[in-house]
Design a protein that fits this description.
Layout: E1 10-11, E2 15-20, E3 26-31, E4 34-35, E5 43-44, E6 50-51, E7 55-59, H1 77-88, E8 93-97, H2 100-108, E9 114-118, E10 128-130, E11 135-144, E12 163-166, H3 170-177, E13 182-185, H4 188-196, E14 202-206, H5 207-216, E15 223-238, H6 244-260, H7 263-270
Parallel strand pairs: 7-8, 7-9, 12-13, 12-14
Antiparallel strand pairs: 1-4, 2-3, 5-6, 9-15, 10-15, 11-14, 11-15
Helix pairs in contact: 1-6, 1-7
Length: 272
Amino acid sequence: MATPTHRGIHRTKACWSFTAKNTGLVRLSRVIPLLLSAATMNMVNISGTIAAEPVPLVAAIIPGSVEPGLETAAIGLNVELIRAAFKKAGLATKIDLLPWRRAKVVAEVGRAAALFTCSHRPDRERHFLYSSKIRTVRTGIYALVRNNSPKIRSLSDIGNKLVGVTAGYNLQDELNDANIASIDAPDDHALVSMLFTKQSEYIYASEDIISPIMKRLNRAAHVRFFSLGTDDLYVCFSRKWPGVAGIAEKFELGLRGIRANGTFDQIINRYR
């Protein structure tokens, strides 16, 4: 994925052009063209005004929250919230959708300005500046209704049952810390499949992610969800992106702005 690493307008040395007149005389006119490097992705409108370079973002596909769009590169609840906050701050964005672990690495190494959305983990702080909280989602255990599973109030209630979890999510660490036997799924759709194909007794996931998948598969009535906690979601700004502190600060102003003017709630309500 090509990501801009340098910014600004690149000027060439003065160029000279000759324009022939009907009189046969030749007029010397000096032209100083403005060349935009393809790597910068700066845009020039018809009036010649230089528009701000879009802020490159990466995100993992989350059904209902972050998905490929037909007319735009990405759609969904989280996409609309993040775009609106940046727009309020006067910043355009460019969003690339990647598998979660790849998206995280792209942001960590500074090939994108930020990753969204992500959970807070202390070990990630060396790579990222965290935004203020975007929103909170419920996390818990999914079980098949037909299994008549006993009510699960905490991870300790799982006992020695095998639990599926999406690789790379912070929930994976929670299972490890609780000494729960787990099996990794490469993505969220594979995680749901793991439950129905009996590769695991349970799956541990965010309701925000799994509920839309179940609805699209017409399987919502076939599962039970045991809420065990909540997970706060953030935008993770790459410490290796040039000028990231300023971008993060503008984003915060934009986020506060859309909360204050009602845009944030309007977007949330459209997805309820």
